[in-house]
Model the fold of this input.
Amino acid sequence: MKRTKIIWFTLPAFLAFMYSCTKSADKSTCHVTVKCDIDGSCRINRLSQVCDSVTAIPLQPNEKALLGVIDKIQMDDHHICILSNNKCFIYDSEGHFKNLIDKMGHAKFEYVYIDDICLTSGNIILADAQSKKILVFSQNGKPLEEIKVDFFPERIMAVNDSIVAVSCGGNQGSRLIVYHIKNRKVLQEHFEYDDRFLWPIPQTFVKSAQGVLYKQPYSNIYYSIAPQGNVAKAYCIDFGKYRFSAADLKETDLLGNKILQDSKGNAQILRLLETKHYFCVEFVCTRLSEDGQFIILVNKTTNKCLLLDSETYKDDLLHGNYRVLPDFSESYGESFVGVIDPQLWKENLKKEGTPIKDKNDLKLTSVLQHCDDLTPIICVYHIKQEISAQN
Done:
């Protein structure tokens, strides 16, 4: 089966790398520079080189739990929370359905649209930009607090149990607000509105070793957010000669709008994830491939770079070769979390005729036999501490 190419050049993503951010919260240098040496990377072409194993968690079918495209996964040791179809689905860690947050409207504890979700140690927090609301629920789905704010909360991430970082939409005001939920008070605001920031980016906040990180649309800089609301430069993602330069910007017309486009097709960040041993950067770079996607893993100790290329990558653990690259959507401890489409997975296995060779194959086959074709499967990728590579 031909692998599906996932084209990321939606309007927000297309614009997201076109103008390098020159404004910063301070004049300090970054605490860590993540050097992504693309040309000097060792090539990884099999999932088994990256992962010790994978765990597939089938989500229990339920008449209330009609999932569509999964927009976001939040996971801890006891819960899996999924944003899909403008609803928040709550499962336990083994995929058993527990509850559903599904109250659209304008009354108390109702929302118009869930823009984002995040987890604290005990609660689920929802952001509704259209209603200018932040809603707090227990991890069992019980409504606890409704907070009306005077900004548009598009993305949200918990700094701790009381404080959240909010990436704001709208056409004025600050782009980043640090907010105390219990006191219902803005602690600090950062990065004033710029008309280049009209569209949000897919990944605004990142959980890291330095806490919650924030990234603006037109920058390779990630800022750490302190509980007091201060921000500081934390990580700089450096692609060397493939890094964007303002000198490469050319004006072009897109749907009647004049925009600045990176004429050289340099590396554009799609997602940053982190474990104890590795930085993981997913990116596109048309200088390397017109429609290819890449994942680069940077060893924190040795700075050695390992590159997964969508043109050569082979999933030899899940045999899910309909995917361009492994779906590292979120980080969870020392692992990454993604989503498997059971229907495509089954079709791929049938076409490939993959033989059952070991316990892993038997376990995955059992998972497929006990799930339907419509309900997604959560996949946990257990990353090796030492990754073998080949040039």
